[in-house]
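Subgroup meeting minutes
Present: P.N., E.W., G.H.
Scribe: E.W.

1. P.N. recapped why we're keeping a running log of single-chain structure predictions: easier to compare across weeks, and new members can see raw inputs and outputs side by side.
2. G.H. added today's entry (234 aa).
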Amino acid sequence: MHFYVFCLVSFILWSFHFSGKLDTFDWEVYWSEIVARLLAPALLLHFALVFPGRSETTIRSSSKLLAVYSLPVALLLIHVSTALNALGFVPWLGAYLLLRKIEFSYLALCFLAAGLVFYRSFREAPSGVLRQQLKWLAGGTLAGSLPVSLFYIVPLVSGVALRPWMVLSVLSLVLIPLCFGYAIIRYRLMDVDIIFKRGLAYTAATAAVATIYFAFVALITISSHAQTTGPVGA
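Output recorded in log:
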């Protein structure tokens, strides 16, 4: 579930871009992108800190999560307050550009930190399946994060005009889900059999509920039609 939410949020981050029409749909797209920009790096760093399951006290575990998610929440509140002060849909252009630089800097730092955490866990892990899992997680996270951080985020934050090849460096991020997927399939990072069986069960249950729902709709429609046309036929 954690990996799924991270992939979903990453898709929103790199696919949603507001058009500037400032209508209701554009507002939803804008704030979805902002939330995804702040949540995706926190989710990845959170996963790196808790994988593969550490024996820690509740207080220490909670403090880690608080440290991971407090900064994105604070940045989101600043973004919202700036937009409210501008009395509009988005902050003023200068404030928006500054917040965008801060948020992308935060994204790069969290992605690289997650890669380093995975690498540290890899160095400390005993030989075996766990070490192979962490090798792919660390390699995929660092290989996916370094190009986009160096060639896209650093020029963006520095105010350098982005060239097309710099923008294409974001494609390196696809290495993260690909390496995670390989670790899942090759080294059983997750119990795929259980996930597959649960997926089939959830799909069957959803299909059954949908069938019952549409059957009731059809019966109500037929009954209403019969009651409407009954007196006329008589």
